[in-house]
C-alpha cells in the first residue's frame, strides 16, 4: 500500500510504500526533502495501486460512494 505523509518541519508531502504489517509495527516516515523524522500521516490518504488520469484509484474497483 502507499501511505501519504506530511512533514511537520518543511510541510513537504511525500508517499511511502509499505505493507500493512510494516505499518502496524510502527512505520518511521522520514521526509525525503529535509530528512526530518517528524511527520504525520495525511488523513484518509492511501492507495492500492496508484492514480490513473488524475483520478484516485480505489482498491475495491468501485468509485466514490459506491462501496
Structure description:
With 67 residues, the chain is mainly β. The protein has a domain at 2-47: Rubrerythrin, domain 2. Helices cover 10% and strands 30% of the residues. The protein has one helix at 20-26, and strands at residues 2-7, 13-17, 39-47. It has a 3-stranded antiparallel sheet, with no helix packed on it. Mean pLDDT is 77; it is low at 52-59.
What's the architecture of the domain at 2-47, going by CATH?
Single Sheet
As for the CATH topology of the domain at 2-47, it is Rubrerythrin, domain 2
What Rg, in angstroms, do the CA atoms define?
13 Å
The side-by-side strand order for the widest beta sheet comes to 2-1-3
Order of helices and strands: EEHE
| Annotation, overall tally of beta strands | 3
The main β sheet shows up as:
3 strands, antiparallel
Could you list the spans in which at least 5 consecutive residues all have pLDDT below 50? 52-59
**Share of helical residues:** 10-25%
CATH class of the domain at 2-47: Mainly Beta
Distance between the termini: 19 Å
Residue-averaged pLDDT:
77
Which of globular, elongated, flat, extended, rod-shaped describes the shape?
A: globular
How many DSSP H or I helices? 1
Q: Structural class, judged by helices and strands?
A: mainly beta
Strand content: 25-35%
Give descriptors for this structure.
Rubrerythrin, domain 2; globular; three-stranded antiparallel sheet; 3 strands; mainly beta; 10% helix; 67 residues
Give a quick precis of the structure.
This protein is mainly beta. The chain contains one helix and three strands, in the order ββαβ. The chain is 10% helix and 30% strand.
Amino acid at each position: 500500500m502507499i501511505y501519504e505523509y506530511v512533514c511537520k518541519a518543511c510541510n513537504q508531502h511525500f508517499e511511502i510504500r509499505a505493507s500493512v504489517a510494516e505499518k502496524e509495527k510502527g512505520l518511521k516516515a522520514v521526509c525525503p526533502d529535509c530528512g526530518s523524522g517528524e511527520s504525520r500521516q495525511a488523513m484518509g490518504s492511501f492507495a492500492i495501486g496508484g492514480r490513473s488520469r488524475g483520478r484516485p484509484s480505489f482498491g475495491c474497483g468501485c468509485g466514490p460512494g459506491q462501496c
